[in-house]
Amino acid sequence: MKKKNIVKIDKKDFFRAVLTDTAPSDVPIIFSNDGLYINHHKTQQLQNSPTFNIIKSLYLNIISPIENTTLTIEAATQSQKKQSHPLKYKIIKNNSSLRTLSLIHPRAQKNYTEFYKEYGDAIISLCSLSPFSIRAPQKVGGSFYSKNTTPLNQYKEINIDTLENELHRKHASSFFAYRGYDRIYKLYNSSTYLNLEKQFSSMWLLDIANCFQSIYTHTISWAIKNKDHIKKYVSFRSQFCQEFDTLIQRSNNNETNGIPVGAEVSRIFSEIILQDIDINVIEALKKINLHVGRDYTILRYVDDYVLFSRNDSTSELVFDTISDQLASYNLHISESKLRKYNRPFCTEKSQIIIGIKAFLDDLEKNLFNVRHIDEHRVLFPRKIYREDRFTHSFIEKVKALIKDTGRGYSEVSAYLVSILSKRAIDLTIGDKYNSPENKHEHALILREAILITLNLTFFFYSVNPTVSSSNRLSKTILIIDRFIKINYPDFLDFIRTEIMTHVNVLKFHREKNDERNGYISLERLNIILATSEFGDKYLISPSNFSYLEKDEINITYFDIVSLLYYFKSHKEYDTARCCLIKIAKQRLTLNFNLHQDSESAHTFLDLVCCPYLDSDTRGDLLSIYLTTYEKKLAINPGLLETALTELSNSFWFVKWKNLDLIKLLERKELKSIY
């Protein structure tokens, strides 16, 4: 059995929630709240210092005015609670639609952490009422498991940032520990699922249409107290429900229809409402003599329902009851996604995955020798003759399977990318256990095995690119590159050339989705970011970024920081870099509302730390900030130079220098997905 390390967490550090719970997980791989967390603690240490410090100034003016002692208590409180505008952006959801996410203003994120601090126990209590929910907060997290199999420690740099190690050790799990399943597919592989199939003959799958976008924020009060009571005492703002309602509204520009999508706190908000609906469903069904556990049962994962019953007639009654109770909260079942099954329970996707697993087993038998060493499952590469035929044969088998079932690549690509990426990484981990007699021959066999898994991974990624798959592929690229660089440097040029051959044929030209306001191609950005350390010989053609000269309106904050990170100081990208900086400066000049506008705040805080902007540009931005937010401060060249130096050695959301992307991705993986 593989050992796991239990890593303890400081429960009293409530601000650690910004590391995992307050921002969306679907962001560029270089983005995190690590700098925000670090600068929060730095500011706490500087609170009593009379000397001006730019990090402290930025934090108090933009993120935490409640701690600004130059303001009156009333003004500070009002400023802290003032509404803010989230950055709304779109990513690919599936082949036919996009998903809108929200990057909340960092001040609102701080307010979220304060709410956790005040009401953490209440949240846990309100999320423990429903027997249906299979994913809900159970307690404040006190530890998390760290697998020994990760390659994180295998490729440590000599100069490790101590604070980043501390972030990994203490603050990389979600604020709450959860009960149930962190992925819904794990339910279908569980003994619970098999036992329910023994008991019930009917299974219906259903979900809520546009759940987060349809939630009316005031319904949090309905879920905690009855409607009449809340309508009568609606002005009593100190109640938990009213504070939560206000918190979500203020972070979403005072909108009451719909809640921000992406942050864990929004999922908790919806969970409280959906748990009340669950209880109402149980009570309504009791009135017609249908009892949970005897006549039916329901498993709900966020807004997805798995309904089991003794027959379709009962399922129909339960379905109608769920629909009625949801409607009372202005929520509705997605009729187009309703699926009905009778024993044996096997969905179309399950059938495909079973077939894919068989193909993967055959591939593994032919490509690897599997051994168990020191309680680890270790892969050793086997010699493959005609690598191209081997790769082509596997792809053809998958194509035939999905064609026979009438499905598309979207049903299997993410699963295949996940498994194949893991196998590629397993090869790099297992190599330390291998002591071949002919080292040169072994190196060639290993190189070909890595190449085969990479080729397959890139193929199944390219036919259906998604953000989650781009994260996995990016990590694989980074680990393989570092592994080859350290252990087989003679092959480094070959491997990098092969990777870039795949990267360069990905679709970097602007497509129809790119013309949709707010769309960001994270699945493209993440892959090129993973190759950002390859060097001058492997740069993507600057012509791929010519759209920056004429497509300003569709360039988001994430595009700006990601591309600046990739361009670095490479001369080839001078024109593209200038376009990005011009776009950013124009937007900040037109809307220098750092206190309320999330995109402005994130853009400004990252750019004033960015080494790829010249000092004059950074100085101009900083001067605008100081004259706007530090009006009593005597601004002079010496103060500006000191502040710019401090910022050059700091970061907020993108760590511009010495960023270890493998470590950052490893930390993100520790977070349980709700």
Q: What are the key terms here?
A:
two-stranded antiparallel sheet; alpha+beta; four-stranded antiparallel sheet; 26 helices; 50% helix; 10% strand
Strand and helix layout:
Blueprint: E1 4-8, H1 34-46, H2 54-63, H3 73-81, E2 87-92, E3 98-103, H4 106-126, E4 135-140, E5 143-147, H5 162-170, E6 176-180, H6 185-188, H7 191-199, E7 202-207, H8 211-214, H9 219-224, H10 227-232, H11 240-251, H12 264-286, E8 296-301, E9 304-309, H13 312-327, E10 339-342, H14 348-367, E11 368-373, E12 376-381, H15 387-404, H16 413-430, H17 439-462, H18 467-487, H19 492-504, H20 522-530, H21 557-567, H22 574-590, H23 598-607, H24 615-629, H25 637-648, H26 661-670
Antiparallel strand pairs: 1-5, 2-3, 4-6, 7-9, 7-10, 8-9, 11-12
Helix pairs in contact: 1-2, 4-11, 12-13, 14-15, 15-17, 16-17, 16-18, 17-18, 17-19, 18-19, 18-20, 20-21, 21-22
Describe the 3D structure:
It is globular and about 75 Å long. It has 674 residues and is of the alpha+beta class. It has a four-stranded antiparallel β-sheet with strand order 8-9-7-10, sandwiched between helices. Strands 1-5 form a two-stranded antiparallel sheet. The protein has a two-stranded antiparallel sheet with strand order 2-3. It has helices at 34-46, 54-63, 73-81, 106-126, 162-170, 185-188, 191-199, 211-214, 219-224, 227-232, 240-251, 264-286, 312-327, 348-367, 387-404, 413-430, 439-462, 467-487, 492-504, 522-530, 557-567, 574-590, 598-607, 615-629, 637-648, 661-670, and strands at 4-8, 87-92, 98-103, 135-140, 143-147, 176-180, 202-207, 296-301, 304-309, 339-342, 368-373, 376-381.
